[in-house]
Amino acid sequence: xxxxxxxxxxxxxxxxxxxxxxxxxxxxxxxxxxxxxxxxxxxxxxxxxxxxxxxxxxxxxxxxxxxxxxxxxxxxxxxxxxxxxxxxxxxxxxxxxxxxxxxxxxxxxxxxxxxxxxxxxxxxxxxxxxxxxxxxxxxxxxxxxxxxxxxxxxxxxxxxxxxxxxxxxxxxxxxxxxxxxxxxxxxxxxxxxxxxxxxxxxxxxxxxxxxxxxxxxxxxxxxxxxxxxxxxxxxxxxxxxxxxxxxxxxxxxxxxxxxxxxxxxxxxxxxxxxxxxxxxxxxxxxxxxxxxxxxxxxxxxxxxxxxxxxxxxxxxxxxxxxxxxxxxxxxxxxxxxxxxxxxxxxxxxxxxxxxxxxxxxxxxxxxxxxxxxxxxxxxxxxxxxxxxxxxxxxxxxxxxxxxxxxxxxxxxxxxxxxxxxxxxxxxxx
Length: 429
Known about the structure:
429 residues, alpha/beta, seven-stranded mixed sheet, 9 strands, 7% strand, globular, oxidoreductase, FADS2 desaturase
């Protein structure tokens, strides 16, 4: 049970009572209907407030009963402001004899990572370059305008159609990377400005839902590659992933699809992605937009449907390969309650830096740095990278980096390995 204590002031008036809790008690409150968090040794009961959380309910519930200090710092660009919302939820503190980290985590590693973050802040690495993002948005809009001008002047011949599809593919892919920046609050100092531009880019340029993105993507960042917590790996009806899930489901004789061929039908995922972005999403109706701006600029929608669908199909290849190359080949497993640095490193790898790789992937080739510091502007990832590598080397944490081509090949190899594990367990265990 929690222990009580009082602090008296010089005025002689009784101070508010402070309750102290042990990790053993805190870890019992890890349910959706009973959620406690620890942030900087303070204990908060977020059970009733969690539904009002702007980042979604599940992202908080995934850390219930744990120390959420690093996740809290990672996702909020103004922690001081957010503390105003936390203050009414405060129920006590960790007992003086309790360690700051739960479940036996390496306290020195955690402390060193927080020092690294403070160093990055002192280096102004969380300050965005207005010129970078202005030029980036400008080159996307320029491609959209060129596409519209081509249709206006040259009609819908086959050559024009193919060129138009390539332009739309590129502009839409780059808009996808840009909305990602605003969604992570990494451009403006004020959250509200980021949210407004995010809705414009993902809604009017992409035709997707900001609510849907927030609901899924923050869960992914909070608990990457963790079953039942990261929605990006909850794909049992299509894929089995990692080393443990295939064996588990093979033993249970689960077979929604022939998973031993999943490295071959992985390519069909592009069709699902393309369809998703072409058809309405129920969550989208909570946002004041749906169709991409480039669609509305095309005067006769029906006659331009083919280049639009072709562009979506090509973009889906681009998107899926880039977003999966950093995670699918990495560890995918159940919750292991690691510290922030170790959990992100186990689930994430980098791709070698080059001007093309930076542009082609929207700087997701720096996926490690992005996952450790999601609110850091992408043009600063290369500056913090040496610090991250040094910290990983100090504690023997693997920092994996590979060429772009190998990263794509590793996706297929990883899926094949998992599929073979499933087949062996399905037939013989």
